[in-house]
Specification:
425 residues; 8 strands; binds Double cubane cluster
Amino acid sequence: MSNNYQTMWKNLGLDLDAHDALLQILGKGYQDIFLAQHSRPQGMSYFDFVMSEVHGLRIKELMDEKEQGRKIVGSYCVFVPEELILASNATLVGLCSGADFAMEDVEKLLPRNTCALIKSSFGFKLGKVCPYLESADMIVGENTCDGKKKAYESLNTLVENLYVMDLPQVKSEQGKSLLKGEYDRFKNSLEKLTGVSITADSLKQAVLTVNAKRSAVHRLSSLRKANPAPISGLDALLANQVFFYDNPARFTESVNKICDELEKRIEQKQGVFSENTPRILLSGCPMAVPNWKLPWIIETSGAVIVGEESCVGERGTRNLTDVSGQTVDEIMEAIVERYFKVDCAIFTPNQDRLNHIAEMVETYKADGVIHYSLQFCQPYLMESIPVETALENKDIPTLRIETDYSMEDVGQLKTRVEAFVEQLK
Ligand code: BJ8
């Protein structure tokens, strides 16, 4: 990355040496995992560019937005509604938590048996290596799993601008009104932060922007039903990850461009893997950048990933928001309805998620499911057992994987995944 960014990173308070080391690891991982793939769609060059500039040009854009008075809001969860953020003239960025960093310092603040995602969010802060975190005017935490909920109490001692949103755990009328109350409170806080009042027009426009972004991703997902698969699971995951960082309109356009290209590929029966390659649905915890380990193992073990039942994937993007409302209240109602459907494993009971996994297997013609849980993630680990039982009762082969961000278990995981893929053949 260009030296021109050094001053920007320094001004953001990054530790330049540690940051350089992170970028080097990222660059090498990207080269070995993404650029080493064959027959990638040409449109992926846009995402390659975004990734090569993820701490450079994109941060510069955010800095320019800030200079023009726009606020930046960072989030760790798909329950934080981008619609409200855009309508208040702010920009949402996902705060990636996909790599181990500064672990010794992290373990002074968090128990060792905390999931890698939470540890990573602390590592990026303590190691001073995340320009998104440092440029955020507001960081939104949410009361989802117990780990995150308690970790935000400690994060609050590390950052000055943490806002914590409460979330329901039951899909009841009371649960919905809790969400509604919290979205109203969030709206007020955003208006206070930005000095901009959210109007019916601005909210509607924001809903349209986010719907367009999600529709583009739906289009991409739908093309993955084709056999041979026109795009690798790794590349599709990358698009789902960039979803959280990029300018929304530009992202939408770039995904649609790839879809145009994929449609031609499908017509010509051109795939990234041959037609008889076993097709996998990946289900479970979100995969934040640069957590590419398991998809990489799967796609170098003779299988192709055809869908992600994940918050960085279909769970996060599945539903659109109804745009028929005319008043702020009506549109807010529609936003609550949309988000209340997200079937995160923190909900109990969570039958919808089980149904969605089975539905996705059918839609994407998957031959089997790999359920991915991060170690120490109680909600997804607990849920992986009923998921496996429900799928196997339908004769859908399922493999449960529990892992973290280290590379120590790559050999062992590869052996298990290869055996599973053999079984699917
Ligand atoms: S809506 S999945 S993005 S909470 S992996 S931190 S659950 S112990 S991330 Fe999530 Fe929102 Fe739910 Fe989606 Fe806890 Fe598990 Fe760690 Fe997790």
